[in-house]
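Protein modeling request. Please complete all fields; requests missing the sequence field cannot be processed.
Requester role: graduate student
Desired output: 3D structure, token encoding
Chains: 1
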Amino acid sequence: MVSWELVVATLALAFVAIATVPSLENLTRVKNNLTWPGNNNLYVDNDGSATVESQRDFSSCKLQRAVLLLSSIAAAALSLTLAVLDTRTASSSELEHVVAEWLNFSAYAIFFTQAVAIALTHDPVKRYRFAFLGALEQAVLLSTVFLRHNIWNTSSHKRELLLANLLLFALGFLVCLTFPRRPDVFHEGKIVDRQWTVSALSHMTFSWVNSLLTFIVSHQKLAVDDLPTMDHNTRAKELHDSFNEEKRTAKLAKLVIMAHGPAILWQHLITMILAVLEFMPQISLYKLLRSLEAQSPGAAASVSSLSWAVGLGFFLLLNTLGETYMWYSSRAFVFVPMRIQLMALIFSKSMRRKDVKGAEKEDTATKIQSGDSDKNPESGPQDDQTEYVQKTRQGTINLVGFDAARISETAIYQNFFLLTILKMAMSLTFLALLIGWRPLLAGMAGQLVIFPITGYFVRKYTNAQDDLMKARDRKLAILNETLAGIRQIKLSAQEDRWQAKIMAVRNLELDAIWTGFRADVVLIFSWLTGPVILSSISISVYAIIYGTLSASVAFTTISLLGQLQATMSWIPELTTNVINAWISLERIERYLNAPEKTNNTVNGDCISFSNASVAWPSDKDVDDQTFILKNINISFPANELSVISGKTGSGKSLLLAAILGEVEILEGTVTVPTSPPLNDRYDGTATSSNWIIKPAVAFVSQQPWIENRTFRDNVLFGLPFDESRYQKVLSACALHQDLLLLSDGDMTEIGAHGINLSGGQRWRITLARALYSRAGTLIMDDIFSAVDAHVGLHLLENAIAGELGQNRTRIIVTHHASLCLPRTKYSVHLNKGTVDQAGLVEELRARGKLDEILKDEEDAVSDTEDGDTFPNLPIHEHRRASSSAKTEGRLNGSHGAERRRHSTISARSDKIDDGGLSVGPKAIPKKFVEDETTMRGRISWAVYRRYMSAGGGFWFWAIIVLAFAIFEAGLLGQYLWLAMWTDSYSPKAMITGLSRNAPSYNITTRPLKAVDLDPDLRYYLIVYIGISLLLCVEGAVRYYVVFKASTIASRVLFHDFTHAVLRAPIRWLDTVPIGRVLNRFTTDFRVIDSEMSTAVAMVINYALRVIGITIAGIMVSPYMAFFAAMLIGVNSRFALHFLEGARETKRLESVTKSPIFDLFGSALAGVSTIRAFSKTDVYIADMFAKIDNYGSSLWYMWVFNQWLVFRLGLLGAAFSTAMALLLVSMKSLGAPLAGFALTFTLQYSMAVMWVLRQYSTVELGMNATERVVEYSELEIESQDGADVPAAWPAEGRLEVEDLVIGYAPDLPPVLRELSFTIEPNERIGIVGRTGAGKSSFTLALFRFLEAREGKIVIDGIDISSIKLRLLRSRLAIIPQDPVLFSGTVRSNLDPFEEHSDERLQEALQRVHLISPQQGVPESDSRQNVNPFSSLDNHISESGQNLSQGQRQLLCLARAILSHPKILVLDEATSAVDKATDELIQASIRDEFRNSTLIVIAHRLSTIADFDRIIVMGEGRAVEFGSPRELLSGKGVGAFEELVHRSGEEELLRKIVFGDERD
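Delivered output (1558 residues):
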């Protein structure tokens, strides 16, 4: 039979030979390895490329090569010496030993060739690989020495040779691990993370992050730029592109697994190795105890005992390495890349997905708004809610914020299924060997009792998680709309009601969380009870069968079952996590499989429609509720101006969307020139001669889309800066005056959605963007709706029809066709969803159709400004006979004045500070949106106190700590009782003092024998089972109280957070992006809700365990206390160093997530503009960069965690080795007590490591609480003040006395000593140029800005002295930008159900959204259905399925219902057609005849017949009087100058004076 020694030597030789083959093959191509790979001899790979400097600094490894060669030569020489000596001295019976020695020498000789190959290889990556293989060969050869030789029982000469060989192998092993892999590489100018750059030793010990960790600790801060960029396997673009390389049709789960297959395979391979390694320390412990049992009492430690003591530490080290790399592989190679990939895929899809605006089921949005929830989680309506929410913008963002996170986090632990199966199999095998199969089967049969309970509560937990995700979807939908409409909510003093609505949905979420927690408590009880039942029955049956119970059997059984318990505890959580992830995968899969925007237009030379019928994109089939633009046959002339007009809701915006390809083409064809891809435009090399690209398209949407960038960046929109063209664009769009008013010129930062701009400014900037673009086709949706009349003329003459508009196809939607008529080539008029009239203007005039197109406008002069139509109060009965003649007359009469104005603007345009000109030193532009604040240093104790206070207060947490202390004391008592039980059978096993758990493997089998159950056995057994069951109950109770405290804390913190945000000053809300607030509402509260409770429980648990073990250890030996204190001290030093860096990384991770939400929300809002400009790839690249920033911070946060775990594991292994050697050397210590002490040693190092790790988790988790508390402690608007009479204001008298207002204490006042008085029921107009203070007065009236000096008095009461809620609830304002919420017509009109349906329909009639017949649409029943025909008709998110005019009218109807005594209108009907506007003005006069009416107007015709007019200028009331007084004064006053410049002077004078002559 072949000896074991020969087998080992042969296997070692085979491994070394195979591992050397690649290097030998490489030696045949030495020439190829003497130069660097890559261009110009610079190293290049997928991660990036080296620079001259990094390659120069790269080590040539001369020292390592020399040491490796010398050590391999010396080792081979020593091996040869051993072989020769054994050959000379061996007997015939030792022939196999001699052969083994020569095989061993052959392996050394082969390794020498490996060392030569390493020394000759200059390719750094190949050299690294060969060196790593060399390290493995050295490790194998090192192991063969131990396996083949008993070193301490050989002759001294041979022992010296063997020890020298061991040292040489160890040296060679370490040297092979020190070869660096490559020089530093850079990607886009930034260094790439060095994990694949450094040596294997640095990689395995996580030492490559030392420099970054030290940098963070020393600077106490971390920015994105401080982090290296990630390698190509962890970058968004590469992950996105690799997933989409092939057209895949499988389920998303399979595709994700395939995409990360190698990493998942590696994760499972390490898991299998770890499953074996986790049992090795206990086997070593068993062997050590058996060795101690074999020793004579008082004898010195044997070599075997010492060897197994060292082996114990060695296997603990291997176990630590295995566990560390399993977690590292799971997080670094699976979790982070998977999360990044899913986020990238979702955003990329959102840029291609159909922009669905259609209505959903009628009850869906109502339930979302109300927070109602179907009790049955499987009910259809609730599924409809979830499906609907996913189609909203916030629903899409939820996929990134929640679902992608849930899937990737499950991927961290999915390998635990394999680990659990393997560990259970091994544990049960050991138990069968230890106690026999009968006791084991009896225990397992008893455990089956709890399986049905576990299964039931797993289902309960799963259902709770499903409900939780649906509740979160609904909560976030409401939160998103609340924050988007916060200004309207605050204006109407509805904060309390909206908070109640938010809290109602939040309560559904917390109910789902609490239901899950309760199910989790039962599951915890189950997995605590299972092993207790198994151990109790197994040990009892064993004791009954054998009549005795030894300490080795008892403690080893308990230890194995404890490990089995820990393993089985993962099963419920793993199962629920996988189910949750599957739900999220299906949600994302539905989104990724949704229809995309297709190229449904036909390429052609001009834009035309042939028998086309189009509808808005929808996920449902066309039905009678679908608005369709039918039978379109039109052809827009190239390079000319075309105008589309028609009544509100006639389909004008839909027609433009059809040109952009953003609709469903139901029949016919739409021909549009194909826009070239962005990459084919070469924008960087564009010149004035080739600037315009004829097929390219630019789009100005009905709602201006402005980004949070500088003024200039919003205009340039990614194009290079051409100063000449830029200045022309500013002049054409009348933006020079606005730049003078902006603090930093065109470098002024614009807030999200243009929040710090007026409506007119926003529209003109979007027009400027289109004009500056290279597009040959400009598609514009009602750009005249937000500008003054004279500015509208200016835009027409200088922008649309001027130099910048020439030779471009211009298609514009407007209610002011007469304004554009002189410049219009082609006109289209829509009516009731079809083309009423279309053709060349001259042809239409010749056929007499032009007057029909213009008949909707009451007057030619009433064109232009902030809406499709301007609100005009009724004019005189004098009208012109021909609207076309009237139009031409007005325009001809105004051209001279307009040219003079244009000349004045042009003359000063070269002096405008646009950011490109400089006169003297230029100040750094101020930031409108401030960077997100991050705390520094450790989490303040105040944050901990706030969390504890919110979670029930000091005494509640004292109860929690007591509950955990009772459990630990009970656990100690259980093992003490077990020790007493076993001691009763063996007098030799004396255990003095307190004893603690000691699993010592004593794998034995005994012959079966039946015995009677003696009274002592029954006594010990009953007490043991009783203690165990009480521990199970207490173990569940302690988690119950923790979960209770967590839920209470979540509820209180969320309430305080919501209260503060809803009542924050409006300027704070304007300057903080919604995504930043939503990040805290979502991600941070997710941590507080679901993660903090477990982390806190684990800290308390392990901290008390450390204390308990320490007390028990002191009873065994005082020396153990010394070593324990040392371990805690050194471990704490590493943990605190880690916390300094990880804390800042966690804060950065939280901060880098907000820009993702911001960009997501902004891009989804402007997706049609982005696609029209062909900028999709630009925004995808921008998002990829932001995802990479987030991914790198997330990645380093977890790498730092593994850095700590590795070092704590090393220290734990060293501690265990030292303690094992100490205990073995104590002659007076017997095997039972040594077993207990060694088990304590294993538990202690693990407990110390876990308490530090979990404290780190709590500290990092408290970052979420810190961020929530930061916003909860915002300075909110004052809620104090006096009450007012119930009927206040009864008269509506308003007095302003010396009012001084500023936006911030450090900013100059915007209103200066403003004084005037408005009598009850007066109609007051407020006019003035941009920046005159009109909007500032509105903010002061509603106390968004508090008075520095002076006061505003309403009906004798100073508004600063009363409660803010009472003030705003008694006033009303209708803003220019309508605010609607997803829901129904009813929920938008009457969100809190205060009015009857009849009253609601009457309000709709008043604003002419429905006909006088209740519920009957104005249009014919065979035509498109009126969206307001039913109060239950759906309104989509932000009212996207309505036109701008319809949204304004719905807001006006809402104001009519409230019927305030003082009403402020800010161009509230600017986007409706003229005929409807005239009717509405009559309704306003009728409805509000007993109210004080304040109208802020851009268009003077709106307020020309008002009682009085205030002319604002530089924050003061320049003039105040009746229109007649202001126009009849001597000289040219401010109002008269405005009238003269308006371009409608004749009309205004007719309104004011009637037939009189001035």
